[in-house]
């Protein structure tokens, strides 16, 4: 454990996971908002909206996240000159957030849409019968029931998002995987402890999160 | 208008006007967005023929893209076979009645499911050489990482599948005198595999996409060859990334279509479920215990 006794290394370790936390938090909020919008588009009566939603999902769900992040950096930033903030690290962070949320929103959309699938058709028919509009039907009747059944899938998506946040390291942000690589290269005698600390940190956060979402999903499940 | 939805009525005159209005407003906004992207690309000179012209040359395809694609598919195929084997072994291990098998198997599966793939690949590629005093080929770093991660996810999928088989199946199998291993092999796994097939195929899509991480350890797969190396020679990084993305999208869409088709096929048999709101979404997302992740 002598590697982490060195304050420089310890600080690098802590800040690397702070990046992961920030990436996960910012992207989770954006992806959720975007995913709900996309899901509403995909079930809406307007063909253009449906087409847009479908195109988004098919493009982002089938492209490797590595390529999406790569494109955000070399395409949006280097080539098209989209610079969000002056600080280089912070700029990479926001480019990463754009890529992660665009990618994750596609999965959120699909999860919500299959959640809508689990609502019995009679619920929507009854809502229409009492004169609710499409937006009201979705907002008051269908989505509240659908949301409960997608707690578990959304939990998996959040966990996947947290792990995917490491991929932003490929455009130079000093997040956990890059810091681990550097520590390994400079401390060849302590490879296994270093890996166990980094992997263990992820496991310590994500395994309980997984169980929490499982518990929550059971609790919130609509009894039918 | 798709007639089978139950979310809204057949549009009357007012709704038709509103929908038409929404179509126009959103259509204009979308066209504006596309035009903005086009203009931005144009401003940066990304439509110049010189950047796209390499894709009309045979050498671009035979020297960069196709060899890269071959390595991608080869790594994905190796990873698929190994992770399916890993998944079956650890699913059965975790369901074992002997605690000294089930607890370690469960720990391994939970651990590797929680560790980011990139962290695994970095450990195998940069860390393991210190331990074995010799280099680890990039190919095996990628494939081993993919196997451990996707194998663990598949193990959970198989376990959920095996547990979803009605208990009468294994009771009947024991009653006709099959041994425990035979019940697993002949009765449970075949039914579990069929029930979980859509999830398994979706996870294989994830695996194929994750091979793109290979470019970080300079494994010559599609992203390394078709985007990095090609752009280094021709200076067309955006064009190359778009072409590579299109290739990934085509391959993965084919696999996803297969998953949907399998899902619908398996839905058709068995008891008829209650009528649901049909949105055409993959049923696997809402019902199965284990979600494909990546």
From TrEMBL, chain A:
**NCBIfam families attached here?**
HEQRo_perm_3TM
- One BP annotation, GO: amino acid transport
Ranges that cross the membrane:
20-43, 64-85, 91-109, 150-174, 194-217
Residue span(s) of domain ABC transmembrane type-1: 17-208
Any single GO molecular-function term of the entry would be: transmembrane transporter activity
Mostly located where? membrane
- The protein's name is Glutamate ABC transporter permease
Q: Which family does it belong to?
A: Belongs to the binding-protein-dependent transport system permease family. HisMQ subfamily.
Which PROSITE patterns did the record assign?
ABC_TM1
Q: Where in the cell is it found?
A: Cell membrane
Q: Name one GO cellular component term.
A: ATP-binding cassette (ABC) transporter complex
List the keywords (alphabetical): Amino-acid transport, Cell membrane, Membrane, Transmembrane, Transmembrane helix, Transport
Q: How does it sit in the membrane?
A: Multi-pass membrane protein
Is the keyword Cell membrane in the record? yes
Automatic annotation (TrEMBL), chain B:
The residue ranges of the ABC transmembrane type-1 domain are 69-255
Q: Which UniProt keywords apply?
A: Cell membrane, Membrane, Transmembrane, Transmembrane helix, Transport
Its recorded name reads Amino acid ABC transporter permease
Q: Which InterPro entries match?
A: AA_ABC_transptr_permease_3TM, ArtM/GltK/GlnP/TcyL/YhdX-like, MetI-like, MetI-like_sf
In which family does this protein belong, per the annotation? Belongs to the binding-protein-dependent transport system permease family.
What species was this sequence derived from? Micromonospora acroterricola
GO CC aspect terms: ATP-binding cassette (ABC) transporter complex
Q: Which Pfam families match?
A: BPD_transp_1
Q: What's any GO biological process attached to this entry?
A: amino acid transport
How does the record classify its membrane topology?
Answer: Multi-pass membrane protein
Q: Which Gene3D superfamilies match?
A: MetI-like
One annotated GO molecular function is: transmembrane transporter activity
Q: Where in the cell is it found?
A: Cell membrane
User: Which PROSITE patterns does the entry mention?
Assistant: ABC_TM1
List membrane-spanning regions: 20-38, 73-93, 114-132, 138-158, 195-217, 237-262
- Which NCBIfam families does the UniProt entry name for this protein? HEQRo_perm_3TM
Q: Which SUPFAM superfamilies match?
A: MetI-like (SSF161098)
């Amino acid at each position: 454990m002598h590697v982490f006794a060195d304050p420089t290394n310890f600080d690098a370790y802590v800040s690397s996971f702070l990046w992961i936390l920030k990436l996960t938090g910012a992207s989770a909020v954006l992806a959720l908002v975007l995913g709900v919008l996309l899901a509403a588009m995909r079930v809406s009566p307007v063909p253009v909206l449906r087409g847009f939603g479908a195109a988004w999902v098919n493009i982002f769900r089938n492209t490797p996240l590595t390529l999406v992040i790569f494109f955000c950096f070399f395409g949006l930033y280097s080539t098209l000159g989209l610079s969000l903030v002056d600080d280089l690290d912070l700029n990479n962070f926001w480019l990463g957030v754009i890529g992660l949320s665009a990618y994750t929103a596609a999965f959120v959309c699909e999860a919500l849409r299959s959640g809508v699938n689990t609502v019995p058709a009679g619920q929507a028919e009854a809502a229409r019968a009492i004169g609710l509009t499409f937006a009201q039907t979705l907002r008051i009747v269908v989505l509240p029931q659908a949301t409960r059944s997608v707690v578990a899938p959304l939990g998996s998506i959040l966990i996947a998002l947290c792990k995917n946040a490491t991929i932003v390291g490929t455009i130079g942000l000093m997040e956990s995987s890059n810091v681990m690589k550097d520590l390994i290269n400079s401390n060849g005698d302590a490879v296994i402890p270093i890996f166990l600390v980094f992997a263990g940190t992820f496991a310590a956060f994500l395994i309980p999160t997984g169980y929490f979402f499982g518990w929550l999903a059971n609790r919130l499940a609509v009894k039918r | 208008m798709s007639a089978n939805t139950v979310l809204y009525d057949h549009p009357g005159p007012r709704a038709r006007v509103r929908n038409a209005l929404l179509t126009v407003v959103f259509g204009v906004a979308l066209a504006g967005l596309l035009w903005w992207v086009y203009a931005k690309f144009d401003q940066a000179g990304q439509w110049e023929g010189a950047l796209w012209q390499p894709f009309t040359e045979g050498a671009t395809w035979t020297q960069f893209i196709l060899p890269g694609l071959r390595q991608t598919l080869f790594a994905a195929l190796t990873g698929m076979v190994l992770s399916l084997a890993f998944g079956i072994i650890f699913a059965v291990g975790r369901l074992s009645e002997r605690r000294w098998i089930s607890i370690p198997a469960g720990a391994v599966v939970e651990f590797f499911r929680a560790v980011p793939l990139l962290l695994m690949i970095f450990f195998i590629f940069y860390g393991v050489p210190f331990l074995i005093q010799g280099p680890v080929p990039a190919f095996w770093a990628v494939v081993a990482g993919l196997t451990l991660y996707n194998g663990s996810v598949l193990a959970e999928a198989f376990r959920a599948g095996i547990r979803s088989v009605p208990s009468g199946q294994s009771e009947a199998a024991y009653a006709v005198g099959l041994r425990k291993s035979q019940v697993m092999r002949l009765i449970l796994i075949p039914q579990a595999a069929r029930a979980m097939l859509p999830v398994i195929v979706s996870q294989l899509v994830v695996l194929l996409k994750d091979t793109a991480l290979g470019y970080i350890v300079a494994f010559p797969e599609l992203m390394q060859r078709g985007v990095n190396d090609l752009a280094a020679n021709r200076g067309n990084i955006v064009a190359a990334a778009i072409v590579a993305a299109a290739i990934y999208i085509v391959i993965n869409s084919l696999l996803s279509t297969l998953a949907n088709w399998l899902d619908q096929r398996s839905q058709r048999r068995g008891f008829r479920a209650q009528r649901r709101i049909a949105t055409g979404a993959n049923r696997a997302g809402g019902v199965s215990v284990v979600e494909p992740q990546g």
